[in-house]
Structures are given as structure tokens and as C-alpha cells.
């Protein structure tokens, strides 16, 4: 593990340490072999001696990548793709590209040209090379190269281009040293124009000409692909009569039967060839195996593979490869790996790079990194030349395995071995770099990907945008938005909100407002959260004028502001010059948008109350009656709270009494008065109101009792706390978690509450004889007045019988036990808390780390600190000093 800490950030490690250690040693050791693994303890020791770093691992992979045998082919296509034909100087550019090709000293022949064409992914570059090669001295295209370019055009569905190509060829037939009609027949057949190909074939026969075996096979294959089965049978007879049937023709016969779903007939045909001593081609067998797999007949396909293997007459490499591919595509990855391992061990079978790639990519998708590791090492040690897919898969592997520093080093060295990252590799690298905190590198990779014609997927874009906003890299975020727009990518609402939030946090609210305007101009539906974020941003800058404008604009766009948002805008307006004018101006605009109702007025009363402007709130309140509307209970409560928040207690009582004279006060009204007085630290007055209410036979809300308990505890008037609790008990209401937790919290720091309770009414018994305790006894336990003793093992259950548990309760419990240095019991209750579904918070972890340090168990404390940090929490300053 010490080696890992040098080059893998712990929070990104997604694989077991033993895998990472295995990987380092096997990659970097000159004596490594895939078949023999060193035990993990030895590996760690060896690694620490050798001082292996991420740079060593990256270098080992660079060496492997540089040995690949298709680097020359990549260079050819790099030259061909380097210039755009739409360039104003395309003639000069084309000449320069052809000069660079000539300087490579290529030895042109049929095999090399076919390799180039098969390697190419860009059809235009393939056409450029085909054209250039055909004009080189000493080389002439063959039917095979023509067939290859036809297939490329057909595969890309560029039929019109292909037909133009054939027409040009017909005109310039003298320029090509190949059989003219053969080429045209093949071309039109591959182009999906079998009727023209057959017309040309008929014209040839009329002139006494005939196709050779190669052209016949191309024609037959095209007819099979087009489903012209009746004509195929006729052509097959012609081929047989002329004695031109070869292994490729047999292959096409099998494909023809498979295409018609005549699989039993195809199998009989193949087994008949075997019995007659005919050579069954490996590729022919693979066609039939593939057809069985496509019909989900894997058992039959497996038996066929084994039967032909046992015959010893067929080279099975290609069939094995197709069998592995089909198993993987069907999701039978374990079966594919088992088959591969068996053939490697018994027959020395070595898959080609394409089969390895199929396995690796599927295993990566399933996050089976152990198996990916094994296959990569197998390829490296077997000196199998990697291709672009392999290199991209390796890059993704390092990202998924948490070794992003190695992935980045390989990426930065890509020009050395011709790595062209795929869109998936770009996405993986950007995502992992963002998660690793390397946001600048992630942004650099994104810019590179855009230059290469890739723009990341929506998820990757959102991850990068979130990272840039989180770290305040707003200039880069601005560039990212521009790049997205240039690539016709519309940022999601979530991204826009985070960007606007980041701008507001950086006090660049005007830029956020401009972005909102841009979204509106593009007819983009702007979300409610965008407006809310901007309003809060302008509020922080005391720009109530802009907040008001946005509030109205928000409603015009169909969004309904919350009371909290109204409140924040009105509070901001109240902090400006002439607050009354500002507030009434906004109120007037609001009333123009809606029919007058109490809710609109209530929002303004609430806002003015929170801004401690009770006169302004009263003015709005009186406007309700003037508008011909009867104030509702909510308006009355908010007006009452406005007086209380400003500590205008006399005015609040007068207002309450006036309402009480009109009719019996509503429950909400007296609850609001009691709660409000308690919150402004006037619990004595609040208790008087509560007693008046109780004398009238009314029962205040539980919140009233909670706030009274909190207020009296805050001034340490525990005698009154006991009286409030007694009254609560008389109402028959249960003890809430809030009250229970608050009492336990005060009990942890002092015995005064417990003593006040005992003095008010002596306890009948010192402790309960059963597993049940009263709230007073719990206070005694937590304050130290009673011994924990017999309740230790199920103390949480004992508490739960008194009031409902929550995370805060468990934290009090952990704290109480840690105070008496019973840390093993603390850990036990922590695990019990998690087991019951309670999510530990910052204080849960801090209590444990603090307690372990106090007990001298610092190594254990550091392990818990690491777990705490991984959860995103930081220890308190007091706990940090103990470490």
C-alpha cells in the first residue's frame, strides 16, 4: 500500500491493491511472465526496493505501443487527412500531400495497397490513396484492389460516388492494366446494382468473354448479399461447369445457405465435404458458426467447432476468433474467456489483436479490471502489436483503475507512437481527471478533442462544467460554453444553473444575467432555478432593482416565485434608499400581474417583517382591507410575526388582543405568538401567553413547547424547563426528538438540569428496575447523576422508548460514552447506527476521532479520519489539534 500512495490518489482507486501491485511489477520487471504471479507481500517489497513509479509504468507501455506495426499506415492517413479539399489552395495542398507520400519510399504492390485500404477509416482518404497509387510508375491496380475500394464505397453507402467512379473508369479504361469488364461487373455488383452487373455479364458472354474465378466469386457474393438467391443458383451452376469452383466459392455457398436460414442443409454440406476428403476452409467454417450463433444456437455451434477441431483437417484460428467474438456479443464473456484459456493451454492458440480488443472492451464495460489487466499483460508479453483500439482501451483501463497519472502521461506522449484517442478515451480521461481534481488537464484534453473533431458526450460535458464552476475557473467555463455552442451542443439546465451560481458567487452577476438573456434570445426555456440563482446573486450585491426586474421577468416566463424568494427580494429593497417606495413599486407591479388576493399581500408582509420593518408590513396589511379583501389567518399571523421579529412586544400583544376581541383567536395565531416570543428570547412572556391559552382549554402546538424548552435552556433556567415539560405531559403529547435531544445535549455539559428536576420533585427510585427509563432518568444518565451500567448494551433502545431516535440522538449517545473513555462501546453503537439505516454525519465521525485520540489510540484515529475525509467531512479544529 505504501507504493500505491506514491502515485494513486486513494479516493480514485477502484481496484484491489493487489491488482495494482501485480500490474506495476509485471509491467516494469524484465523478468516478468504472465503465468507466474508473485504474492502480494513480495510484490510490495520488490516494488519498494525498485522504486517503481508511474513514470516507469507509462514508459513500459510507451515502449510496447511504439512496437506496433501499423504506425506507417497511420502516418499515411495522417498525411492524407492533413489538408481539406475545400481549402482555397487545395491544389497546392494536394501536391504537398502527394510529395510527402512519395518521400515515405513506399513499396507499392497489391498486398501493401490492400493493407492500406483495409486500415483506413476515412473513405475520402482511401480514395485519395487509391488514386495516388494508381498514378505511380511501376504499379497498376489489380482486381483485388479495385474490389477493396468498391467495398469501402459500398460500406459507406456512397453509391452515387461509386457509380461516378465506375463511369469514369469506363471512360479511362486505357489507364488501367486490368480486365475491363471483370472490373465493371465487380464494381456494379458490390455497389448494390446487381441488375447492371448481370447485364454487363450477359454482354460479355455475348462477345465470347467470361469472368475468371475471382470475378465470379465477387459477383456471387454480391448477389448473396442482395438476396438474389435464384440467380445465385444459376451462377453457381455456371461456375461448376467451368471448373472454377474454389475455397472462396465454397465459402459463398455456405453463406448462401445461411442467408436463407437453411442451417441444417449448410451443416450437411460441410460435413459432406469433410467425409469426401475435401478441404474445409477455416473461414468457411467460421461463416457457419457465426450463423448458428446469430440464431442463438450456441450449443450446436460449440459442438461443431469441437468436431472439426478433432478432425485435425481444418486450421481453426479464424473460427476460434469468430466463436469468441460471438460469445462476447451475446454477453457470454465468461464462456469466451474459459474457451480462450483452454485453447491457449492445450493448443497454444494465440488470438489476433482484434479478438483481444473485443474481450478487453467488453470487460472494461463490465468493470472487470482484473481480467482486463490479465489480457493486457498477455498481449504485451506475447509481443502482440497493439492497434488504436488496444491503446485506447489501455487508456480507459488506467482511468477506471484510478491510475489517471499514467493515462495522462501516455496521452501526452501520444505523438511518439501515433495514438489517436477515440471519443470514449477522451470521455474517460476528462471524467477521471475531473474526479481527480486535475481540472486544468481535463480542460486541455477537451480542447485537444475538439481540435480532433470530437466533442465530449453530454455527461462528460456536464462533469467538466461542474468541475470548472466548482473551482471557480469561470473564464475557462465561458470558453467551454462557446465551444459547445459552436458544436451545436446545448448545455443542460443543470449546467447553466451551476455556471450562473458560480458567476454569482464570484460577484460576476452581470455576466450571469447576460447569459440568461442569451438563452432567452435563442428561445431556450429558462428554468426557475436560473432566475432564483440570479436574484439571490443581485441581492448579495444589494441590487434590489435588478432583483425586482428578474422577479417580474421570472413570472412572465411562467415561473411562480416562492415565498422565500419574495422575502429575499423585499429584504434587499428594504436595505436600499427609500425602501417604502421600492417595495410599493414592486407590489404595484405584482398586482398588475395577478388579481389582488391575500397571498400577494402576505408575501410582502412576510418580507417586510423579516427586514424588521413592521410599519411597512402594517401599511401593506391595511391595504388588504382597502382593496376590499378580508385578511386571512396567514396574513394576520405574518403581521403578528413582523412585530415579534422586531421585538415590538407591546405592539404584538396589542395586535393580538385586538384580533382576540373580534373573535376567538385561531390556533395558528397564538401558536405564532408563543413561538415568536420564544425565538426572540422572551420565554417568560411566551409562557404567560401559553398559560392563558391553557386556561381557556386550548392546547398549544408541540412547536410551542419545543421553543420554550430551547429558550429556557439557553438562559439556563432549568426550573422553568421542568414546568414546561410537566405541562407538556399534562396535554398528553409525546416527547419529540427535538426536546429529547436538546435536553440530552445540555445534560452532557452540566448536571444543573438534572438537579433542578430532582429538586422540583424527588425521584421515587434512583434507577428503573426494568429496561424502561423516564426522560428524567435519561437526563440523569447523560449528566453523570446516574450510572450507565446495566443499560449500556441497549441504551439506544432504552432512549427510543422515551422519544424517537435520529442521527443527533446517536451522536449524543456516542459523545456520552466517549466522555467516559468507552471507545469500544462507541464503535459498537456507530455500527449499530449504520445497521439501522441512520446516515452518520460530520459530528458522528468527529466524536469517534476525538475520543480515540483522547484514549491514546492515534493510529486507529487516523484510519477513522481517512474514512471521514472520504465521506467529504473535515474534523473540527479541536479534534485536529489532538492528531
Automatic annotation (TrEMBL):
<feature type="repeat" description="PPR">
    <location>
        <begin position="597"/>
        <end position="631"/>
    </location>
</feature>
<feature type="repeat" description="PPR">
    <location>
        <begin position="281"/>
        <end position="315"/>
    </location>
</feature>
<feature type="repeat" description="PPR">
    <location>
        <begin position="666"/>
        <end position="700"/>
    </location>
</feature>
<dbReference type="Pfam" id="PF01535">
    <property type="entry name" value="PPR"/>
</dbReference>
<comment type="similarity">
    <text>Belongs to the PPR family. P subfamily.</text>
</comment>
<dbReference type="InterPro" id="IPR002885">
    <property type="entry name" value="PPR_rpt"/>
</dbReference>
<feature type="repeat" description="PPR">
    <location>
        <begin position="352"/>
        <end position="386"/>
    </location>
</feature>
<dbReference type="Pfam" id="PF13041">
    <property type="entry name" value="PPR_2"/>
</dbReference>
<dbReference type="InterPro" id="IPR011990">
    <property type="entry name" value="TPR-like_helical_dom_sf"/>
</dbReference>
<feature type="repeat" description="PPR">
    <location>
        <begin position="841"/>
        <end position="875"/>
    </location>
</feature>
<feature type="repeat" description="PPR">
    <location>
        <begin position="806"/>
        <end position="840"/>
    </location>
</feature>
<feature type="repeat" description="PPR">
    <location>
        <begin position="422"/>
        <end position="456"/>
    </location>
</feature>
<feature type="repeat" description="PPR">
    <location>
        <begin position="387"/>
        <end position="421"/>
    </location>
</feature>
<feature type="repeat" description="PPR">
    <location>
        <begin position="177"/>
        <end position="211"/>
    </location>
</feature>
<keyword id="KW-0677">Repeat</keyword>
<feature type="repeat" description="PPR">
    <location>
        <begin position="212"/>
        <end position="246"/>
    </location>
</feature>
<feature type="repeat" description="PPR">
    <location>
        <begin position="527"/>
        <end position="561"/>
    </location>
</feature>
<feature type="repeat" description="PPR">
    <location>
        <begin position="457"/>
        <end position="491"/>
    </location>
</feature>
<protein>
    <recommendedName>
        <fullName>Pentatricopeptide repeat-containing protein</fullName>
    </recommendedName>
</protein>
